[in-house]
Amino acid sequence: MSIDANKNRTLIGVIGDEDTVTGMLLAGVGQVTSEPGKEKNFLVVEPRTSDDQIEEVFDQYTEKRDDIAILLINQHIAERIRFKVDTFTKAFPAILEIPSKDHPYDPEKDSVLRRVRRLFGE
Hints:
CATH architecture: 3-Layer(aba) Sandwich
Number of strands: 4
Organism: Komagataella pastoris
Number of helices: 5
Subcellular location: Vacuole membrane
Pfam family, one: ATP-synt_F
Shape: globular
Protein name: V-type proton ATPase subunit F
Strand order of the largest sheet: 2-1-3-4
Radius of gyration: 14 Å
Distance between the termini: 31 Å
Helix content: 25-40%
Membrane topology: Peripheral membrane protein
CATH superfamily: ATPase, V1 complex, subunit F
Largest sheet: 4 strands, parallel
């Protein structure tokens, strides 16, 4: 993939709980358009949100969209779709697992950190 193919990657996507997404939107991360397939770059995961819905949005943000450079996902939500997160190997978008107010960050669960440890033989 050439550098030109990634020049449109200017957005940060967010899959998170209400508090996390609200904070990111207040920080200016939100993007809402009328372009089909790119209506918004965030998903608020509520208790009634199914794993299938989370997977569908994850797939859309990582496979179908060419404007997302970084995807932030709450770690406890990434656990619900761990297979998808762990098997994603492309450079873009970069997947970053972040803590939430009610769920602290656990480095043992972070797929990126586990890959780095494997590279260094730990």
